[in-house]
Design goal:
alpha/beta, 14 helices, 2 domains, seven-stranded mixed β-sheet, Aspartate Aminotransferase, domain 1, globular, Aspartate Aminotransferase, domain 2, 419 residues
């Protein structure tokens, strides 16, 4: 790897944060859009929780520094600052898929005049599976009531097609803020306004935007948003997901109910009927995942200190620089760009198509680089603004050029499972 400091790395105002992360030895990591790396504050927060568990046992729920009973609300306040949303409009419980089912169960109405749910044709599988199973449980046929917005010939979503889809008897839409395959950033304001005009309830899946793309949910005002916390937020594998519910729906009863969705002041009365908490907290279900939440609490301290606006600026610089290196040094290598070029249309990762993307990914890993491969021909690369360097981008492109010039004899590579 490069031993000489890159000039842009010397000028990087976020360079200090690299030392706060545990970088895989001997590797250059470009897969933070699938799983962010562990940082020291996350490790410390988990160790503190383990200590409280060891020394306080059950009293850790109320007497520990982290106050497990209110830990969800504490982290919701951190996330509210990152997403510009009221703190009581965010909660955390379980996984993104669980939140998807909660949104469906809470916001979908029995309306035979508009029975359809809209997703995009490139939707992450859990969105498709969740919506299809929800419709089946209502006795509706997904083949009829699950509508898709198709991508264009370049594999991109067009906002005009989404807006037209809203007019096809749709009452609820689940759409990605950033498409997980191509890295395309949608025009969130245009689509959200279009949904409101058509009286379509809209939920954004923000898994590939929170922590790397600034969001102002109070200004945007979707009906709901869901996101995982193990990508750009670095909360750890399987870390607890987040859910935003617009204040206009805070009086709704939760479609899925659980005892941690109760008003905390009376939760231990064990009443036979749920008295819901105020705000999005009513959408919580079971006991909080305290160890997972602790790691996230520590990781978010780094995100807040760095600032999402600064993270976005460096992310765009990194992906723009990486794109320029591909164009300058691998112009004839057969790569086809899947990610839009404009800054306001690009999320946190770059995606390129190549007929040998599978073997390229495997060969890069053999050389110490960690990109991501998606069937059938997509290579995704996500330089993190917290720990990636411009020199890393140079090294990656150089390695790809060497691999293409002298192709190794490698077996096929199956797609990785984590998104």
């Amino acid at each position: 790897m490069s031993a000489i400091m890159h000039p842009l790395d010397q000028l990087d105002p976020l360079a200090e944060y690299r030392d706060q992360f545990f970088l895989p030895p001997g590797k250059v990591y470009f897969d933070g859009n699938s799983l962010g790396l562990l940082c020291r504050s996350a490790e410390q927060a988990v160790l503190e929780t383990l200590h409280d568990w060891k020394t306080l046992a059950i009293e850790g729920w109320t007497d520990g520094e982290a106050d497990w009973f209110h830990l969800t609300e504490r982290i919701a306040a951190q996330l509210s600052r990152l997403t510009q949303a009221p703190a009581d409009s965010i909660t955390l419980t379980g996984s993104t898929t669980l939140h998807l089912h909660q949104v469906l169960a809470t916001l979908y109405r029995r309306d035979d005049s508009r029975p359809h749910i809209l997703i995009d044709s490139s939707a992450f599988p859990t969105d498709r599976y969740g919506v299809a199973s929800f419709l089946r449980n209502l006795g509706r046929d997904p083949a009829e009531h699950l509508l898709e917005v198709a991508t264009d010939d370049a594999g991109l979503l067009r906002e005009a097609d989404i807006l037209e889809g809203f007019r096809q008897g749709v009452q609820l839409a689940i759409l990605p803020s950033v498409v997980f395959t191509t890295g395309q950033l949608l025009d969130l304001a245009m689509v959200t306004a279009g949904a409101a005009e058509c009286d379509v309830r809209l939920c954004w899946d923000c898994s590939h935007s929170v922590g790397v793309v600034p969001l102002n949910l109070s200004e945007l005002q979707p009906d709901a948003a869901i996101w995982c916390t193990y990508k750009y937020l670095n909360g750890g594998p399987g870390s607890v997901a987040a859910l935003y519910l617009h204040p206009r729906w805070h009086a709704l009863r939760p479609g899925l109910a659980g005892w941690f969705g109760a008003d905390k002041s009376r939760q231990f009365r064990m009443e036979p009927e749920l008295v819901p908490a105020a705000g999005a907290g009513r959408l919580q279900l079971g006991t909080p995942h305290v160890l997972s939440l602790s790691a996230l609490r520590g990781a978010l301290q780094v995100i807040e200190a760095a600032g999402v606006d600064r993270l976005r600026r460096k992310s765009l610089q990194l992906t723009g620089y990486l794109r320029d290196q591909f164009r300058g040094r691998l112009a004839e290598a057969g790569f086809v760009w899947a990610t839009p070029e404009a800054d306001d249309r690009r999320g946190g990762h770059l995606a390129l198509r190549h007929q040998r993307a599978r073997s390229l990914s495997l060969a890069l890993r053999a050389r110490g680089f960690v990109p991501d491969f998606r069937e059938p021909d997509l290579l995704r690369m996500a330089p993190s603004p917290l720990y990636s360097r411009f020199a890393d981008c140079d090294d990656l492109v150089a390695a790809i050029g060497q691999i293409l010039a002298d192709p190794p004899d490698l077996p096929g590579l199956s797609a990785t499972l984590v998104t």
